[in-house]
Amino acid sequence: MWGRCVYRGPGLRRSLALTFDDGPSEGSLRLLEYLAAEGIRATFFQCGKNVERHPQIAREIRDAGHEIGNHTYSHARLFPRLGRRLYWPTPALMAREVARAQKMIQDEVGVAPRLFRAPYGLRWWGLDGAQKQFDLLGVMWTVIGHDWEWRADRVARLVLRKAGPGGIICLHDGRDIQPSPDVSEMLKAVREIVPVLKGEGFGFETVSELLLPTAA
155 pLDDT exceeds 60? Predict the structure, then answer.
């Protein structure tokens, strides 16, 4: 009922996956430059609304060889609080959010995502049906960097402390569907994290590659 989901790769080799949520945004372009310079391919879980806003950036992410996943259309908080009551979303709402993002990414980027990450990491009742409709595998993480609220040095310390073979690192190249988000702390953190992990012998793969029992 919660949908198929993974939290890490098998850890059979010294590799990790960098993942970025909530994009694309203008800041994604600076991230792409750094990843290209380091020879790293990552996985981007994109909001359909942001793809609609920045289709060319989404296509540049694709053209750079990165993997694109579904992060719903509007990054809706699917457990909205009204006063003291907690309202659960309906399966129809879930299906609409996932379907709109899937269609937007396919129409604008020419890619049919096979991976899905729930906004805020909140996996909710009935999600299985929405994922099955598009054959989507849910992806969580082994460490989330809090890069939307922490300074880069603190983000980097947390990620480096929890990094390990098969790990999935969650960072953000957007801020839900806000226009022109400030992702500068994420960019600084990535520049701290990558050299250290490379120095420790880690390689970087997309999530789909990381899940394979042998290197792609």
Answer: yes
